Amino acid sequence: MLKYFRGRSLGYIIKFVSVLPLALLLWIVIELVNLFRPVFIVGLSYKGRITHYMWPMELHLRNANQLNKKYTMIFVMPAATPNEAVRTVYRRYSIIIDSHYPKFIRRTFSILAELLKFRYNPKLPTNNLLWKLAPATKLSIGEIEFGKNLRRKLGIPEASKYVCLSVKDGAYYSTITPDNGYGQDLRSQAEDSRNVNIDDYMGAATYLAMKGIYVVRMGSVVSGPLPKNRHARIIDYAFEFRSELGDIVLYRNCLFELNGTAGSIIFAASSNRPIAQCDEYEIDSMSQSNHPPRAILALSLIKESKSGRLLSIREIVKLGILGQHDDILRRFGLERRNNSAAEILEAVIELEDLISNKFTLSAENKLLQIKFYQCYEPPLDPIDQSLVIISPSFLRKYEHLL
């Protein structure tokens, strides 16, 4: 409770205290409802970004579904709703208290979410179990029809396969400001090396297109259009056709997602679509992130700025610089080294083999997976990290860093 008041102005505190009578009344109502129907209350991130929004909703709903009993799910979202179509889908299964409600209502439920979270916020099983369950939501007939019409509009034949391509784009971060409804200002990250160049992914996209697989470039905000001389089966949906509902329906039925560490990975994960995740920089978050089963992951690495020497995985973990911004890396005399176009293509080919059941881990590759997780202190259990497979070609190439 005190976290809401720490560092806040007197006026802010007064506004919260003023809703306490309403919070008390709702508390009583919730207790009464819980006598007949289990109540779950989940407080979401204040940041207002799609990953922070969908990730807890999807996992908590999956957990509730496996309990095999009716429930009342309440999600509290203090910041603006990042995608109205997502809200439309998830509110069929829950009550979502967000920017559609007056601030005093949100304050009330924020207090309730904090006061009652230990009573009504169930502890989730490991993500390994939850991501293997069926998606928590279904599309309506109208949304399914919208998806069919969108595919026709994009020129994708009904029987054809397609892959969603999304990368972390600096243009998106230049829009993350409180004025736009977010709970933070991330404009400084627009030039960070954690953003990746989509040009590095065009080789893999062209490879897929030449095999007859369409590639749909996704993204809510992108730096610019794709090259005009790209393969005809590479479609620039993000720049020409993008809509919030379109994001949902396209990810729901894609063959897999090729993701350059973009938050849109949650769309693929929530639909149980396989993922080739490249340029991943938060290496230690795999067991608690958004990767469903059947995912191949290639990592960005860290190198010394002067000598160009690549740090070992142990060094990266020990320094505690996983996922750090460029200004932090510069203090250590370091910089990020993102995946090459060849490494991205190799991860895509491996995921293709995984999907078609042609993929097997040799004894050598199994040993490399184990050696990777032994770089942590204490070492991680590979079984607990089974949501993803570290790209075998990547580990063979950088075995000297393990």
Could you list some keywords that capture this structure?
single chain; 402 residues; alpha/beta; Rossmann fold; 2 domains; seven-stranded parallel β-sheet; three-stranded parallel β-sheet; 12 strands
Per the CATH scheme, the topology name of the largest domain is Rossmann fold
Element-by-element helix/strand order? HHEHEHEHHHHEHHEEHHEHEEEHHEHHEH
Unreliable stretches (pLDDT < 50, length at least 5) are none
Largest sheet: 7 strands, parallel
Count of discrete alpha- or pi-helical segments spanning 4 or more residues: 18
Shape: globular
- CATH architecture annotation of the largest domain: 3-Layer(aba) Sandwich
- The number of E-state strands comes to 12
How confident is the prediction overall: mean pLDDT? 87
Strand order of the largest sheet: 6-5-4-7-8-9-12
Q: Which structural class fits the helix and strand makeup?
A: alpha/beta
Radius of gyration: 22 Å
Could you tell me how far the N terminus lies from the C terminus, measured between alpha carbons in angstroms?
44 Å
Percent of residues in helices comes to 40-55%
Instruction: Name the CATH homologous superfamily of the largest domain.
Output: Glycogen Phosphorylase B
**Beta-strand fraction estimate:** 5-15%
The CATH class designation of the largest domain is: Alpha Beta
Count of discrete domains = 2
